[in-house]
Amino acid sequence: MPSNSNRLTQKIRQARREGRKLLCAYITLGFPNLSTTEKLLAGLDRAGVDILELGFPFSDPLADGPTIQAASERALKHSITIDIARSIVAKARKRGVAMPIIFFSYVNPILQYGPKRFAKGIRRDGFDGVIIPDLPPDEDPALVDAIQRAGLSFVNLVAPTSSNERMKFLARKSKDFIYYVSRRGVTGERKQFEQGMDRNIRRLRKFSRNPILIGFGVSSPEQAKSASRVGDGVVVGSAFISAIRQAKGGTASVVKLAQKFSRAVHGRASLRAPDCVGRASCPAIRGETPRLLVAPVANSSQ
Predict the structure, then answer these.
(1) 190 is a domain residue
(2) Which of 38, 45, 60, 64 is catalytic?
(3) What is the distance between the alpha carbons of residues 145 and 156, in angstroms, rounded to a whole number?
(4) CA 35: distance to chain centroid?
(5) Under 8 Å CB-to-CB from 93, ≥6 apart: which residues?
(6) Bridge partners of 32?
């Protein structure tokens, strides 16, 4: 792949051509240690993970539940820096890791590092996109511009409580895919999805041709399979972090879990066609979505 190509953009295009759903996995950099992170980058790539979110540990992760918070706390003991993140990914690229990698971070570490230096540096060392959960794109347009000018994809999160106007804005500002937050509150493993998710996905499709990946609470291959029937794929985080914790430095069981998620996600129907947005001919718009595993909306406090 040419050095100026964005792997995430290419992956999305490939998925459309092949009619594939997308599996995005989240792991925390440095949890339980950097050696394990390096091994997981290679192992998850081989296991069928389409996209990797590499979470940068932060002391106050507002969007994360207890599982990922605990992983961040442990990773911080290793004095993780953005330079270390760059080095880990640069090594992975030299070793043949090909999947797109997204830098997932809260905004403060990026501002301290310097937005332009950050964007140019991580792009040069093999990252393809950025997710900043506590930065709406209209809060710091200069930072978002620096990320995009560096050739990185800026991916937005869209909440189930978003108005149509806000959904439209966030969808149009998101590059390559949209991260739909399936539940109110923080990340974490859940047995069921909230009611109304399929309706919100149909609503969101009216505003963007980009694939919609469903995250926050996708805890099992069965749930991933169910969610992928409605969205264009899933983001799985806490389930992988729990598996990493239980493996105690090993990676084989985590890779096996990734293979199970991959089979669940990739065994379903295709991504919608790019022109199937807001049209009555689109199955999702007509409401022809299978029944989801849903639960009544709960209080968002954790």
Answers:
(1) yes
(2) 64
(3) 14
(4) 22
(5) 125, 126
(6) none
What's the pLDDT score for residue 282?
Answer: 39
What's the Cα-to-Cα distance from 172 to each of 135, 136, 165, 176, 204, rounded to whole Å?
Answer: 16, 13, 11, 10, 11
Residues β-bridged to residue 131: 104
Closest CA to 217 of 209, 227, 207: 227
Q: What is the pLDDT of residues 11-30, one digit of tens each?
A: 999 999 999 999 999 999 99
Instruction: Quote the domain boundaries for residue 56.
Output: 7-295
263 sits in which H/E element: helix 252-266
Q: Per the structure block, which two tokens stand in for 169?
A: 């804005």
Return the CA Rg of the chain.
18
Taking only the tens place, the pLDDT of each residue in 193-204 is 667 889 999 999
| pLDDT, greater one: 83 or 282 | 83
Taking residues 272-282, what's their average pLDDT? 39
Catalytic residue among 45, 50, 53, 198: 53
- How far, in Å, CA of 78 to CA of 32, rounded? 9
The domain that holds 232 is classified in CATH as: 3.20.20.70
Mean pLDDT within 212-218: 93
Within-domain flag for 112: yes
How many Å apart are CA 274 and CA 98, to the nearest integer? 25
**SS3 state at 63:** coil
Q: Is 232 a catalytic residue?
A: no
Residue 225 falls inside a structural domain: yes
Look at the chain and report how many structural domains it folds into. Answer: 1
Q: For residue 176, tell me if it sits in a domain.
A: yes
**Would residue 53 show up in a list of annotated catalytic residues for this protein?**
yes
